[in-house]
Amino acid sequence: MCSAPSSSTLDKLLHPKITRGLDSLYQQSDATGWLKYLILVPLWAIFNMSIIALVVIPWWEKRYGFGVIEFIEEVLWSMWENPLFRIVWIAGVLSSIVFDVIMEAWTFIMLHRGLRQVHHPESLPKLVHAVVVCQYKEPLEVLAATIESLAANHKAGATIVCLACEARDAMATKKYETLLAQHGSSFRDFLMTSHVLQPGEIVGKSSNENHAVRELYKHVKKEGLDPFNVRIKRLRAIISESCCLPGLHFAVVTGHGDSV
Length: 260
Description:
The protein is an alpha/beta fold. The chain has helices at about 5-15, 15-20, 25-30, 40-65, 70-80, 85-115, 140-150, 170-185, 205-220, 250, and strands spanning about 130-135, 160-165, 190-195, 230-235, 260.
């Protein structure tokens, strides 16, 4: 007999970072390569329907000597002649239609609310958003899509973008200069860090990101900003514009992210 999950496990599962999907975004991104296999779902359904039509029904008629369709029609008509069945069936159909209409209307209402600009109270500390974009030999067009999405954000002027590069990427500086010329004026600051692998470090995104955040902290202190009013968001390079951040993303983010 399975034991009930502990309260700490339930608390973790109900944490906003879990329920809102924040901790699963990278796993979702890694799963995009498998989306093409979703075509197997309708194909499997078509296969099953074909087996029923071409194998099961002929076998039934051969074994029992009468048509399946005629049998189903006879059962349905006998049920339909019952007034109570008709009332229940019609009520079920109407309630399903009403429920779908209400849910669609509610969805549009929530989407409309999501497009509204958020007005924070004057007493709220003025946050500076910092976005660390880790990249290593990413194509320029991929980085351009990421930076363009950040530049189109409502709070772009209060955002520090840090392009975290690896020193072994020979094209990093050229890509940074191109992006700086295209979108640098849209941000509060647009920085580039160049990570040199140190003894004991492991090659990968974590060491690059760690170096970038440390350099970002130095920049924040140099600019005279309060580190506790700087919120970090870590991004991977965005592959397509459909994955870009919504324009009001940073306007509604107040409690998520890490202080520098």
